[in-house]
Design goal:
- There is one protein chain.
- This protein is α/β, with parallel strands linked by helices.
- The protein folds into two domains: 178 residues, Quinone Oxidoreductase, Chain A, domain 1, CATH 3.90.180.10; 104 residues, 3-Layer(aba) Sandwich (Rossmann fold), CATH 3.40.50.
- Helices cover 24% and strands 28% of the residues.
- It contains nine helices and 15 strands.
- Strand 9, helix 5 and strand 10 form a beta-alpha-beta unit.
- It is globular, with a radius of gyration of 20 Å.
- It starts with a strand and ends in a 7-residue tail after the last strand.
Length: 296
């Protein structure tokens, strides 16, 4: 049986538990396509999974895989598949499973769409999942909003370059110092209640994350907020399908959205990418280039 390179972990722990190993090349089932992966990126949820902070979801069987999003090229199409063709440049998100940090993936056509034409597959890998803050700033400006951003003290110029009208350090400014806002996107998850109070009448808050160290309190507040009051909170799920991926590609090709890449590393250095994301202070996504082809 042919094998391929993939990022694996044999136990939960620090970034060093990740390594490049070999697993069987997936055989696409009827109705699936085989994608040769060019690149993936590292997302916050993968850090929690690798560390064992969500083991009720990830379980205790090893080795485990990592990687949520991907860009690549269609390598095989099974009978019954309509749309994708061999050679198409595509991108996608696996959804509830992990494993895109590998040379090949077998996926349903609804999980992929044509990748943007105006950027490389390496750059495009920074966009399908994660990196919500930098994307939200750009989309807010594209939609005509006045954007206020909170960031680390060393990243204020960075978010202004992305289009933020105002940028404040979260070490010096909190919910009580700002607002009200029509829309709030909470990417940290540690002050849900305080930020909800900063919503304008009929405002909406999108919760990207919740505090893993206080799961019950954070989750309880979010659930209550979706039911009571006009200033409602909604969960955000980073699980785009074909239509949203196609729309996202159009925004990139139309110039409304640009990839923001902090670093590009080979698959063998995925532990270093996890370590860099955990260290904080990132300016964009940490991308893992799986193939050696620099032209894509």
């Amino acid at each position: 049986m042919p094998t391929m390179r993939a990022a694996l972990l044999d136990r939960y722990g620090p970034p060093e538990v990740l390594y490049e190993g070999r697993v069987p090349v997936p055989v696409p089932a009827p109705g699936e396509v085989l994608v040769k992966v060019h690149a993936t990126s590292v997302n916050g949820g993968e850090l929690a999974g690798r560390a064992g902070r969500v083991r009720l979801v990830t379980g205790g069987r090893f080795p485990q895989r990592t990687g949520i999003d991907f860009t690549g090229e269609v390598a095989e199409v099974t009978p019954g598949v309509r749309g994708p063709a061999v050679g198409d440049r595509v991108w996608g998100v696996l959804g509830r499973t992990l494993g895109s940090a590998a040379e090949y993936l077998a996926v349903r056509p609804g999980r992929i769409a044509r990748a943007p034409r105006t950027v490389s597959l390496t750059e495009a890998a920074s966009l399908p999942a994660g990196g919500v803050g930098s994307v939200a700033v750009q989309l807010g400006k594209a939609l005509g909003a006045r954007v206020t951003a909170l960031a680390g003290p060393g990243r204020l110029d960075f978010v202004r370059e992305l289009g933020a009208d105002e940028a404040y350090s979260y070490t010096e400014c909190g919910p009580a110092d700002l607002g009200p806002f029509d829309v709030i996107m909470d990417t940290a998850g540690t002050e849900h209640r305080a930020w909800r109070r900063r919503l304008a009448p009929r405002g909406r808050m999108v919760a990207i994350s919740f505090d893993l160290d206080r799961k019950a309190a954070s989750l309880g507040h979010l659930l209550a907020s979706t039911v009571h009051g006009r200033a409602r909170v909604r969960f955000f799920s980073g699980d785009p399908r074909h239509c949203l991926l196609t729309e996202l590609a159009g925004l990139v090709d139309g110039g409304a959205l640009r990839p923001v890449v902090d670093s590009v590393r080979p698959l063998a250095e995925i532990a270093a990418a996890h370590r860099a994301l955990e260290a904080g202070g990132v300016r964009g996504k940490h991308v893992i280039r799986v193939t050696a082809d620099e032209t894509a």
